[in-house]
Amino acid sequence: MATPRAHTRVLDLDEVKAHTLPNGLRVRLLPERSAPTVSYYTFFQVGSRNEKLGTTGISHLFEHMMFNGAAKYGPKEFDRVLESRGGHSNAYTSNDVTAYYEDFAPDALETVIDLESDRMRSLRLTTDSLEQEREVVKEERRLRTENSIFGLMEEQLEALVFLAHPYRWPVIGWMDDIERISRDDCEAFFRTYYAPDNAAVYVVGDMDPDATLALVARHYSDIPAGPRPAPVAQGEPSQRGERRAVVRYPAQAPALLAGWRGPAARSPDSAALDVLQVCLAVGESSRLRRRLVQDEEVAVSVSIGWGWRIDPGVFLAFAELGPRVKSARAEAILWEEIDRVATKGVSGAEVRRAQALLRSSVLHELATHHGIAHALGQAEALLGDWREAGRALEHYAAVGAREVRRVAAEYLDPTRRCVVALEPEVKR
Amino acid sequence: VTHASAPISLPPIHRETLPNGLSVVIAQRPGVPLAAVRLVLRGGSSLDPPRRSGLAHLVALAARRGTRRRTGPEIDLAVESLGAELGAGVDEDATYFGLSAPVEELPRCMDILADVATRPTFPPAEVKRLQRREVAALAHDLDEPSVVADRAMLSAAFGDHPYGHPPEGRVRDLTEARRGDVATFHVRHYRPSEAILVVVGKVDVADVLALVRRRFGGWRGPGGASPPVRAPAPPATRVLVVDKPDVTQSQVRVASQGFPRKSPDYIPGIVASALLGGGFTSRLMEAIRVNRGLSYGVRSRFATSASGGVFFVSTFTKVETTAEIVEVALQETARFCEDGPGIEELERTKSYLCGLFPLSLETHDQLAEKLADLALFDLPDDDIRLFRDRVREVGPEECRLAARRYFPLDRRVVVAVGPAKVVAPTLERFGPVTVVPARKMA
Fold first, then answer.
1. Which of A59, A164, B107, B227 is deepest in the core (most CB within 10 A)?
2. Which residue from B minimizes the CA distance to A298?
3. Which of A136, A361, A370, A422 to mutate to test the interface with B (most CBs of B within 10 A)?
């Protein structure tokens, strides 16, 4: 049996230069010259958890607005200028953060800093661009949710798991709210959440950190700090019994999605749940794949999603079932396997297998400038410290079979589970 | 203009052909302590016999379900306990085994890879189970409108040509395949003289070579090469509507004849396609997303294979604007073919392609894939090394000619997946319309 080299440092963070500008903008730079590229990430500490009913989806719609022109670089210019300098950009919005990135050749660095600081300083929000992005976002919602079976089910599940917390609604927002968001809403959102003291910049790759920091300071320092964002309400009541929902849809086969409220990312249990996730459903030799897909043949695929979030998030299990399989039978087997882990635990070999797979997965993530910049930003946004990006393997190494059993028992309790079943609807 | 201008430098590459004909390619480079291994066998789904679509795919999956030394579950456990991943799949031209492993576990992983690819036993129960699983998985895949659209496009663009059927197979063919079909395909097409093994990572070349000789040196197979696949004919203009009555958004594809990977039009074609539908500032993105808000995304691409290829535009829009999005896409395409690119636009697109290129070589897995493709299509290293110089040489007229030659003007197929009752009548102006129910795509 292989012993994972759990103590190997995978990322040398001693080289990171960290600095905070007087206006509160945090800057972290890591020179790494194995490839002639630079990755530039900007994380804003805002996501759907900062939203309110009536304007759900504003974080994501706003992400689209960031590409529609500012004072120096007008409409359509952001990507044109960047692409003409050999770069490309994109962005994503999650429950917790909104992140923008550019990947580019080193000689475009100053252009990228100019582009990013321009839109943080002086974004222009016009009615025309808002109306156009509203239509684009509605198409995105039709693509990812309304016409996607997993999208439909996931939306139902989050609404079951959370009664009060804003994680209850989807990141993309409810369709009616997307219709309703106004230009004034966007202006207020920008002033609060896109201020430099609510943001952090990560630069990784072929660049000089001192010169880059000087450039960043020169371009961003005149942007004023913003008001302190309102705290997110945490009044989620405890769950006292299973919650269920059914999605009827003209699908060819049934599917099953289950979810449990987990801990916040900062909890030491988060790493143990990562290990549990691998034991249960990563790889062909994982427990659920073996039992549900290979032995019983009730499912064609099984996966576990455990995404770390700022506030307590969701540990979810998704199974695509065979076309003629009874959902109840698949469910019974799934509960049986989860109960087995919660009561009898997993073996040391299973934990070592999980640690070995997690190590490879961390190495894959850190194999590119883009991946490193993202990992630093993600660690700081969710855990409050970019240094955590280099500590993942230490945390995994500290997890033993006992912890895996404990977190399975504690979080995957049958009285606290939520279940969404897809029932294929037969028409005509 | 000096952006993104540093020459592409490849790590030292060692190439050698073993006495049994296996081509070995080893690239030694620094980076994370994982090794990327890619074993490629020439001939993929285009070798599927009549009424056996999906056979090459099934063989690739079934190979890891048992060998003389290990059962399927033993293989799974051995690979995963080492922190490694072993995957297999096919496209129209080849079968691929991909291995990603901690570099110190390479010897044990290579042993398993060689065992799986060269000595599988295809246990009957495991083959049967895989067949059932693949058929069931298709039911889920075909609930995804974009998957249905891609399958329909292949079939509309290539018809009965070996590139026209989905590599994952059709339900009936997958169901009827026998274990004997699987074993015969393996004996016939998995042979060292038609195989390429690529290893990339922080490895020692001599060690890897010794390892490869030990694990793959004894592999024997029939000699000779499979005959090349005939070139596909261009499609006849038509509209294919796949009926999915309940969706609120149509998936749309517009396709025309492309070119093979080794075509001299490859580079001008890539540039022309990027101008029309690559990145966020392309003509189509501007017309469809930015100016009209018709879609969240639109892109165009040349898919290039050994014997031919397809050019296609891919997008989606709410059901009511299906015909409008096709109209806009075709108008923009025609306008581009007529006028060619502007100078500023062409320079921007070339810089974009050149700047992005190093990002496609950043990881060991990416480089392994590129090196395997070079070997598969018999291309020199200069294909990578000089990519950016060649892109920079493309002029506006060359670009316009490539567009005129391949973009969908006269001979093209339009595919829409959506409610036929609403969509089909609006698409009649683009050619004769055929409607098929979504379940027929299985």
1. A59
2. B133
3. A136
The alpha carbon of residue A352 is apart from the nearest alpha carbon of chain B, in Å, by 7
Interval A305-329: pLDDT, tens = 999 999 999 999 999 999 999 999 9
A426 touches chain B (CB under 8 A): no
Q: Which two tokens stand for residue B377?
A: 């299509």
| Interface touch A135/B293, C-beta < 8 Å | yes
Give the closest of A83, A85, A283 to B281, CB-based: A83
What's this model's pTM, rounded to 2 decimal places?
0.95
Task: Give the nearest chain B residue to A82 (CA atoms).
Answer: B352
Query: What distance in Å separates the CA atoms of residue A391 and residue B319, rounded to the nearest whole number?
Result: 48
Rounded alpha-carbon distances, angstroms, from residue A392 to A78, A107, A311, A356, B382: 35, 33, 19, 13, 40
Give yes or no for residue A5 having a pLDDT over 80. no
Residue of A nearest to B142 (CA): A252
How far apart are alpha carbons A342 and A334 in whole angstroms? 12
Calculate mean pLDDT across residues B310-336. Answer: 98
Residue given tokens 């963070």 in the structure block: A13
Per-residue exposure over B9-33, b if at least 16 CB sit within 10 Å of its own CB, e if not: eeeebeeeebebebbbbbbbbebbb
What does the alpha-carbon distance between residue A409 and residue A269 come to, in Å, rounded to a whole number? 12
- What ipTM did this prediction achieve? 0.95
Residue B371's pLDDT is: 98
Calculate the alpha carbon distances from B33 to B36, B44, B83, B100, B194 in Å: 10, 31, 12, 10, 30
Inform me whether the pLDDT recorded for B104 exceeds 60.
yes
Q: Are the Cβ atoms of A107 and B349 closer than 8 angstroms?
A: no
